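Try it yourself: sequence plus uridine-diphosphate-N-acetylglucosamine, in.
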Amino acid sequence: MKKVLIVFGTRPEAIKMAPLVNKFQQYVDTFETSVCVTGQHREMLDQVLRLFEIIPDFDLDIMKEGQDLYDVTSTVLTKMRDILHTVKPDLVLVHGDTTTSTAVALAAFYQKIPVAHIEAGLRTHNIYSPWPEEINRQITGRIAAYHFAPTQLSRQNLLDENVPDNNIVVTGNTVIDALQWVVEKIEGNNQLSTEIGEMLNNFGYDYLRLNNDKRLVLITGHRRENFGEGFINICKALKALANLYPSVDFIYPMHLNPNVRKPINDIFGDGKPDNIFFIEPLDYLPFIFLMKKSYLVLTDSGGIQEEAPGLGKPVLVMRDNTERPEAVEAGTVQLVGTEYDKIIAGVSLLLDDENHYNSMSKANNPYGDGESSDRILEFLIKKLNN
Ligand code: UD1
Ligand code: UDP
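Structure, out:
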């Protein structure tokens, strides 16, 4: 029986790998599957592991506050050496563009173990944006034997880099598998709505505020290239918007990275408008619940650009470019960058102009049909058992 090792380390990788881990568990007669988490994230990773009931076989537990890219890369690389010697997998599965994914791919390459890359082929072609993710995914793509591309465009990016077509499979994005699972759990579950309401209350947001059709702007941010000036602009723009639109609520579940929290403390520490709420990072389920309730989403996140269009929510992306142009072309996602004026103008237009809002809020989903994990399994069953 072939041995497969699935490795991930951060919140978004966990969300996107969870459906695949669950799928592999249905094939115990075909694959001997182990799960290793690097622990690049801790609390935010554990939230996802709990939700999807994943108990890792190995946990490298590498997170240390304030560690830099050298620390993450070198610790994952050396700790993976021992895991790979122990497990001796026939294939290692990694996801996307984090430093975990690239360091693991490199560790596998050093032992000549083939790598499968999930969410392959996304590109901006600018190695500093997003940084370091663009080069992470390019390196992982060079090492990988098998490439699971979410869209035709990502497949084309790989073909342009001379990746052989028969090693690329267009699968959709597994985030839609995860999203559909969560949405199914939420819909019509009144008990769950009550529990989430109580949780938001505990986080300092009175959930009853969302009655009476109150409009909600959901915000997230964490990109390294936005640290410093970018985040200061974002916080100043949020303050101005909350004052300009007192009847709208602004909720920002804050990433745990201290570089994200510092400007928030600096700018809102002396007092904040009553309609803006900074809360702890939410579990995936309440986060999607809130996204479903929201009017629009303001973010620099990758995964949220894929989820929100599926729920018909307009997304303003606080970046200058995106490796996910499909939803921009479809009209639900728009780039606003991190300039103060542009953020205010983008949000104001959506809040003030109903026609513009309606043109962006049509549900569309270029990222999959919820069956990406099945396609990945189908390919690997054929490939590894021949
Ligand atoms: C990482 C990924 C990024 C991904 C993002 C998703 C890299 C280089 N970056 O960025 O691609 O989009 O995750 O969120 O791979 N922290 C905690 N607890 C947590 C998580 C983070 O305290 O559960 C704090 C720690 O101080 C940690 C810091 O955040 O050192 C930064 O974490 P790190 O994984 O290096 O970077 P992210 O900004 O989270
Ligand atoms: N998310 C979450 N709780 C939050 C904020 C985000 O569960 O408080 C989810 C979100 O739905 C998406 C993923 O986390 O699936 C995105 O993670 P992040 O923005 O940290 O990383 P990126 O996608 O940019 O790599």
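One thing you can check immediately is this: The longest strand covers residues 2-8.
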